[in-house]
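Colleagues,

Please find the record for the two-part complex below.
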Amino acid sequence: AQKVTQAQTEISVVEKEDVTLDCVYETRDTTYYLFWYKQPPSGELVFLIRRNSFDEQNEISGRYSWNFQKSTSSFNFTITASQVVDSAVYFCAPRDNAGNMLTFGGGTRLMVKP
Amino acid sequence: EADIYQTPRYLVIGTGKKITLECSQTMGHDKMYWYQQDPGMELHLIHYSYGVNSTEKGDLSSESTVSRIRTEHFPLTLESARPSHTSQYLCATDRGRGNEQFFGPGTRLTVL
């Protein structure tokens, strides 16, 4: 079984600020996958990024970047130069090696004010 | 981009009614999922399917049932809706282990 903790329930920033969303997970698997999803007010979940547990290289994709630290079981997500359209609920979700289930955290509601 | 469709998008019904929430995908994926999400809360897996004629219960107990007669369709049925079933229901699909899941737009169900 896996467990996810997104300690920040709500974050409010002003447009153009950088913001980091924290995610800490628990898993017994040695191989697993990590995902971030965005849920705007429309309700649909939008896939953002995926990481394999055996690849700790951190990357940047446009305004998004992520910091995967296997030693601390953290998978943090950063938005650079935030925009109002980034306002949404963001979910971190590990997936077990059997690949059956995503385990969702409680989500972090991000509000970007103009 | 995934093509996953859910109908209806919004549904308000009275207690005791039988309802079916439709989910269809044009991706040809074998795996499909149903999640339940209360407003502002995390998603909980209630059903999933490995393929045609395969259905499994998820980690959240649900009074709903599902069927998978065709690869493209994964409908969810509530035989007798109750106010406790009021929630958003999200359908998803993927290619299998390690791959991202693609979600439909969801059905917001309100049972009066």
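The radius of gyration of chain B is 13 Å.

Comments are welcome before we finalize the supplementary table.
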